[in-house]
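Target chain:
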Amino acid sequence: MKRDRNVKIVATLGPASSTYDEIRGLFEAGADVFRLNMSHGSHPEIAERHAIIRKIEADLDTPVCILADLQGPKLRVGVFANDEGEELEVGASFRLDLDDAPGDATRVQLPHREIFDALEPGARLLVNDGKIKLRVKDCGADFADCSVLVGGTISNRKGVNVPDVVLPLAALSDKDRADLAFVCDLGVDWLALSFVQRPADVEEARKLTAGRAAILSKIEKPAAVAAFNEILAVSDGIMVARGDLGVELPVQNVPPIQKRLVRRCREVGKPVIVATQMLESMIDSPMPTRAEVSDVATAIYEGADAIMLSAESAAGSFPIEAVQTMDNVATEVEADPTYREIIEASRKAGRTTVADGIVAAAREIAETTDVAAICCFSQSGTTALLVARERPRVPIIALTSQRETARRLSLSWGCNCVVTGTVDRFKHAVIAAVRAARAERVATPDDMVVVTAGVPFNTAGTTNILRVAPCDESKIVPADPEL
């Protein structure tokens, strides 16, 4: 289904978007990818939403991408004798320990020995999304004596962030492992990995998925920012998860980090999602704030592959309106001449392979001649990602005989994904390409398209042919009889 924009929209499903009509309404409003949040919802509920998405895909005869987002380890304090919690004053002393006795104004349990193993004097502990800040004065194997930097009410099972140290915790909890096996068996396309601190976290998840889903690493911790290039190298995609980043880092650090991460992902041709609080006010309001619209627009101007809705579409009162707002903002931004200037000025891609040269030439031909679209055949999806990396001015038609590849590519910038039959000759590939371009309404019989493919066919990594072809099938004659 051809959209009037290139950036993709990810919509999280939840209580406000769980029926066939609600989910189809989100898709028709502009959602390209559906996120299943494993932090909320039972396995039967997740399975039901997955089945509805696949039914919509079949009914509309278009690939639809599904992203399952793992919860990750949750670090929380214990409980208090006073269910309403205790008030911590600035400058007061407060102890965290392994004792499971109910807490009071002087101490509470922190049932995570791994944190105490990693803490050092001077480290910060952030409680309840950073509303309370503690600094470690002294610590040992089972305690941390802290001073209160920012006070407030601390109550039962509030979350804890530890921004200053790399924790000896795996990114996958026991719950995550069970969820991973479940969603891979269901057949999701992308797996978002929370609590990533190091490349090994991604490599562990990749072994468990065994090729059944692409791995998208969520960058939400300072350690992940520091090791970003190494994490990116072993990931299939990235999510800039600004919520936890804004807790563990000063909020003013997040915008430049977002820009650097998006630009680096563009350089290597891996999809990147910008997420968290993009249209937060639309949980309760049918209209966003001007600041939220500017935030969405900024991510689009940066060239992000996708922008994401969380509670806005999962639990808000106006899920359809939130998707429509994102769609409207994206369409308007991409029509702005400044958008194209920024995208092209920030294009930076190392080209070392034949495939790199082919897709760069395809983009240059499209920009200097009257070509309606770039049509690329891609079994694994690699060539389509390279074309998307170029951010061409014309539509991208990604053709593949693998439905799984088409679904995964639906997350990537500008990719209009079409599932074709198996192609074994270049002439047949050209015919399939021009038919797809016409069916997607990006070309007429009077237009020309650029077609890229690889010979031998159906072999990953063999992109080695480029041809400018007429969309009138009667005029398609192979330049080489062997093709």
Notes: The mean pLDDT is 94.
